[in-house]
Amino acid sequence: MDFPFNREKAINAMLHICNSLGGTWDKYSLLKILYFAEQKHLAKYGRPITGDNIVAMEYGPVPSISYDEVKYSKVNPHFFSITDNIVTAKSIADLDLLSASDLECLNESIEENKHLSFGDLKAKSHDKAYNWTIQNLGENQTIPYIEIAKAIGATNEMIEFIRLTSENFNFTFNEKHDW
Predict the structure, then answer these.
(1) Residue 134: domain span
(2) Which end of the chain has fewer surrounding CB within 10 Å, N or C?
């Protein structure tokens, strides 16, 4: 099960996080804040913000395509610059590309996580979804959205809604039809 990745939303979500935190933030914390926002949005609204693949890496879940946007070899100089592990926003987020619910969850995640240390973020993100993935699929594997939603306490009804939404999207847009 997956959702489509929306690059513009991912870039603007990260720009919004950086802009909200003074324009510069460390890469690890930026990506953890994005992960926690994705998790909140998934459990509350039944869809992720960006549709990124969340991968269970050594230091916890990482929105992998978003990570590629900010790391050295993939940086788009129009949006970000990076020195060591410090990401600087080079433009203002286009908030028209983010829904009210996207911004709600991003802002909640910023407030809840901006003061946490590397160790605290690592401990918090090594949640049930991360542990399930490590145990069942292994490190550097994509964490299923259902497990991400379960880890934050999504209801059974929301879990079923997420499953059906993902299946419907994938059937509609990824299946080849002979109609």
Answers:
(1) 7-174
(2) C
**DSSP conformational letter for 54:** E
Q: Give CA angle at 123 (79, 142), nearest 5°.
A: 60
* Position 61 in a domain: yes
Burial class (CB in 10 A: 0-12, 13-18, 19+), 21: middle
Q: Is 100 domain-assigned? A: yes
More confident residue, 69 or 56: 56
Distance CA 148, CA 82 (A): 29
What is the 3 state secondary structure string of 99-132?
CHHHHHHHHHHHHHHCCCCHHHHHHHHCCHHHHH
The residues near 11 (Cβ < 8 Å, ≥ 6 apart) are 69, 76, 79
CA distance 122 to 107: 20
Closest CA to 10 of 48, 50, 39: 50
* 83-92 tens-digit pLDDT: 888 999 999 9
For 125, other C-beta atoms within 10 Å of its C-beta total 25
Contact 158, 43 (CB under 8 A): yes
